[in-house]
Design goal:
This protein is mostly helical. Helix content is 85%, strand content 0%.
């Protein structure tokens, strides 16, 4: 029962991220949903595999490694993409005067 719930929540989370990607208008907003899609659902699916097969089995360890790689590499890709978007929109990575005033 726990495995079914974890998989259902993982699939639901991924579907929400996909709908968010389609619904958002700006690239930065879409990037937030893409980032969530690389962390939330894979973690839940990996947890389901670990509950079903055990953590210290080849399936469990592979699921954990894949989920961690998706989270780490997804975050790195999101950061690089956000920086590229900022350079394309503003021409520089330097903060504007307004951003400096707000501490962003």
């Amino acid at each position: 029962m726990i495995v079914d719930v974890l998989i259902a929540v993982g699939v639901t989370a991924e579907l929400i991220c996909c709908v968010g990607l389609l619904a958002m208008r700006s690239a930065i907003d879409r990037l937030h949903y893409a980032g969530a899609g690389t962390v939330a659902a894979p973690g839940l699916i990996a947890a389901a595999v670990c509950v079903e097969d055990g953590v210290f089995t080849s399936n469990g360890l592979n699921a954990i490694v894949v989920a961690l790689l998706l989270a780490l590499l997804g975050a790195a890709l999101a950061t690089a993409t956000a920086r590229a978007i900022r350079v394309r929109e503003r021409g520089t990575l330097e903060p504007t005067a307004t951003e400096r005033a707000h501490g962003s």
